Each structure stands twice: as C-alpha cells, then as structure tokens.
Amino acid sequence: MSNIRKTYEQKLSEMNDIETQLAELMKDERVKKYLELNDQRLKLNSELLQLYTDMKKEEFSKCKHIWIPISKNIDYYEGRSDIDYGCVKCGLDQRVLGTYNPRFLSTNDKIIYDYFLEHYATSGIRSHTLCNFDLARAMYAKIVENHPDIDDVTALKYFEVALDDIRNIRVNEDRKESRVKRLMLKPGFKNWGGHKN
Ligand SMILES: [Zn+2]
User: For residue range 79-137, what is the model confidence (pLDDT) as tens digits?
Assistant: First the structure.
C-alpha cells in the first residue's frame, strides 16, 4: 500500500471513530440543549445585526444634518481637491466612501457606506471650516448639552465661534488635558488645530 493511501485509511478510521463518539454524545440531553442554544444564538445575532443596521439607517434618514468638512484630499495629478464631510449629529462620515475594499470596514462604517450608496445624503446645513471629526462631534455634543433647545443654525454658529476660540487662544498642557476630559475625547487627543485626520 502506498504511504498516501495508508495515511488516508488511518485518517478515515479516526474520522469514523469521532463520528461514533459524536453520535453517542448527541443522545445526551445537555448536549442537545447546548447545540440548540447555539443555533438560537446564531439566529439572534444576525437578527440583532439587521435591526441595528435598520436602526442606524432610520437615524440617518431622520437627521437634519449639520455637515462639517473633516478631510481634504488633494489630487495633484488631476489638480483638484475633494472635501469629505461628516455630520456632527448622526455621525455620517463621507470618508468611508474612499475605502479601498468595503469588506474590511467595521460594522458601523459598513452601514454608513451602504447608506451612502442607497441615499443621496446632502440635505441639511454645512460649515466651511475644516475640523477633526472627533473634536467636532465632541464640541457639538457639548453645545447641545448646554443648550438643549438650540436650533441647528445657531448651534453651527456656536460651533464655529468655539472652534475659532480653540485655535486662537493658546492654552497650556494642563488646560488641554481638562478640555479633553470636558469634551469626552480620547485621552491621547492632541489635534487641537483640528486640520489633519
Ligand atoms: Zn446627520
């Protein structure tokens, strides 16, 4: 018998042995229950993902967007520049459209990507001041927290004034740190100029 055939037959016999053991275990009520629960979990998981997706898409479609320019892509070869916008209210972020392969996007980014493909989301108002998106969202959240009934146009004005202040007032490192905490940004946040991402 060739070596390959011998190995094949050995593995086949191992496989039969495992199948017998599995069949035996399947008679156990606890094992049955385990497998049943596992199936239910898988099904629930995909239902949850679908509902989460629908929930986010509903949130995006109901939002009266406030768009902030969050990154500028300059194409020197073609001599033009594109600006990506992000909505500080719902989190729609046009940068995901520049992704090389959408399959590698996170769950949230993939939902945003699909939403942009399905919808022409350009309604709402927009700012012209380029700003880091995390900073912009944190500042907007703080404005709404302090003025719960504020309208969008006024909120955008407050945002631009606050951004101007941040850029013009030199602050020491201690104050930057407390600002990070106040705006609930990630502890390592350094991008107070807010230009690059
Ligand atoms: Zn929005």
Answer: 777 899 999 999 999 999 988 899 999 999 999 999 999 988 779 999 998 999 999 99
Q: Name residue 68's beta-bridge partners.
A: 86
Compute the distance from residue 34 Cα to the ligand 1 centre, in Å. 43
The closest alpha carbon to 60, from 20, 12, 22, 108, belongs to 108
Ligand 1 centre from 53 Cα, in Å? 15
Full DSSP string of 98-163: G-S-GGGS-HHHHHHHHHHHH-----SEE--S---HHHHHHHHHHHHHH-TT--HHHHHHHHHHHH
Percent of the chain exceeding pLDDT 90 equals: 69
The residue written with tokens 């959408």 in the block is: 102
67 Cα: distance to centroid of ligand 1 (angstroms): 7
Using the mean position of ligand 1's atoms as its centre, give its distance from the Cα of residue 102 in Å.
Answer: 21
The confidence band for 197, taking pLDDT boundaries of 50, 70 and 90, is very low
Q: What is the mean pLDDT of the chain?
A: 89
Q: What separation in Å is there between the alpha carbon of 93 and the centre of ligand 1? A: 9
CA of 178 to the centre of ligand 1 (A): 28
Contact assessment for residue 119 and residue 94, using Cβ atoms and an 8 Å cutoff:
no
Contact between 97 and 112 (Cβ < 8 Å): no
Q: What is the pTM of this model?
A: 0.75
